[in-house]
Amino acid sequence: MTGSQTVDFDLFGVEHSKLIVLIGMNWICTKMPDAHWLAEARLRGSRVIVISADYMPTANKADEIVILRPGSDVAFLLGVAREMIANDLFDRDAVVERTDLPLLVRSDTGKLLDARDAIAGHALATLENAVVVRPQADIASTPPIPPWTAGAQVVPAELREAWGDYVVWDPAANAPAAVSRDEVGARMQTSAALEGTYQVALNDGTTIEARTVFSLLRDYSRASASTPCTTAPGSRSV
């Protein structure tokens, strides 16, 4: 669980959790009407771990408390990621289908590889999970439909153009393949590689090196292992 304003609407989901890790959220104070979900999860046997920079009220409900010095949370989380990666403690299919970790990143710019640069003749996919409205210049004369009646995320045409489509490496074809924002979960049709560094020929005739986001995360997490993650005196250090 991470605290994020206005999107914590599914806190009831903890009743199905065996392990609840709270970071960036003081549930007991900031979500009082939903506090009963946490209490009821504990009654069902859920284990609660609170990660915080202070002994805030929700820590009273924790089985384990990890107190971090302010500013060290990223190093701590990279350390957790390192352990999960090193010991293969993650769901590989879920990571491929539901995160950006299989996407290719250009080594020369550090940006996600755009399918329009790597796939000959690629045209932006028509999104089903979003409603793309007309360019801003046309809206003044013909206003778009109100967002709350669209039934999907409303996206300006300029933003859709800026997003582009993404690229993964398809090991079956041994070639780059385009994926859009719609292609997640069961919609993912491409067998995307999760790890690796590849040479990708661009449409302009040049060849660049590209790596998966996962491989970059793995390297960053290894680097974090050499950086001490200090905690407050008397607290547990992980």
Percentage of residues assigned to helices: 25-40%
Strand content: 15-25%
On the 0 to 100 scale, the average pLDDT is 83
Number of strands: 10
Low-confidence stretches: 229-238
Features:
8 helices; alpha/beta; disordered C terminus; single chain; 3-stranded antiparallel beta sheet; 10 strands; 238 residues; 3-stranded parallel beta sheet; 20% strand
Write the layout of secondary structure elements.
Blueprint: E1 19-23, H1 27-30, H2 35-43, E2 47-52, E3 64-67, H3 73-86, H4 92-98, E4 104-106, H5 115-118, E5 130-133, H6 136-139, E6 153-156, H7 157-163, E7 166-170, E8 175-179, E9 197-201, E10 207-212, H8 213-224
Parallel strand pairs: 1-2, 2-3, 5-6
Antiparallel strand pairs: 4-10, 7-8, 9-10
Helix pairs in contact: 3-8
Please provide a written account of the structure.
There is one protein chain. The chain has helices spanning 27-30, 35-43, 73-86, 92-98, 115-118, 136-139, 157-163, 213-224, and strands at 19-23, 47-52, 64-67, 104-106, 130-133, 153-156, 166-170, 175-179, 197-201, 207-212. The longest helix has 14 residues, at 73-86. Mean pLDDT is 83; it is low at 229-238. Strands 1-2-3 form a 3-stranded parallel β-sheet, with no helix packed on it. It is an alpha/beta fold and 238 residues long. It has a domain at 92-218. It is built from 8 helices and 10 strands. The protein is globular, with a radius of gyration of 22 Å.
